[in-house]
Design goal:
The structure is a single chain. The protein has 172 residues and is of the alpha+beta class. It has one domain (2-171). Helices cover 21% and strands 39% of the residues. It has a 5-stranded mixed barrel. The chain is globular and about 45 Å long. The N and C termini lie far apart (52 Å).
């Protein structure tokens, strides 16, 4: 009973504070170079993303799907820029049901990220501990075997870097 009241209260807070029923566009823009991404990010972190812990359908549809907002906790391992709390919430918007993998809508609405470690470039939302991806998949670099991986939309100059190399790169 107590858990359901806490979950209901959290959902209400997210609805009011973050305008939860409106979709967030995860990639309103893309940057021509990595320096723009770095400069415009409020927070740059290496963190572990957990499973979705809250989702809300929005009032909007795209193609054959409905837009859904997702919340995932990110446990911070290293902060490169900004002053986030040790655990922050990543808010993303996705399409449900998922469109085919090559559908361009996937680049605009990333949906939730898979569990794992990532280098993330984030923009803050109205509430201190809530963030969104600064520029869709340009903002997401999986961290596997102690090195970053640049996705198709990402910047190749951030590929294959260790934590120390990321620190050096960002300080240039």
């Amino acid at each position: 009973m107590i858990f359901s009241k806490i979950a209901l209260t959290a959902g209400f807070i997210l609805s009011v504070v973050l305008n939860w029923h409106e979709p967030l566009v995860d990639s309103e823009h893309s940057y021509r170079n990595v320096r723009q991404l770095i400069k415009t990010s409020d927070v740059i972190v290496l963190g572990t993303i957990q499973n979705v812990n809250h989702q809300v359908r929005t009032n909007r549809q795209v193609g054959n799907g409905q837009l859904v907002n997702y919340e995932q906790k990110v446990n911070i391992k290293h902060v490169f820029k900004g002053n986030p709390s040790s655990n922050l919430s990543l808010i993303t918007t996705g399409v449900n049901p998922l469109p085919p993998p090559r559908d361009p809508i996937n680049k605009r609405y990333t949906g939730p990220l898979a569990e794992g470690d990532y280098l993330l470039f984030l923009s803050s939302l109205k509430q201190d501990s809530y963030f969104r991806l600064n520029s869709g998949f340009q903002s997401v670099y999986p961290f596997i075997n102690q090195k970053t991986i640049a996705l198709e939309e990402g910047f190749h100059s951030l590929h294959g870097l260790t934590i120390n190399e990321v620190t050096n790169y960002l300080s240039q």
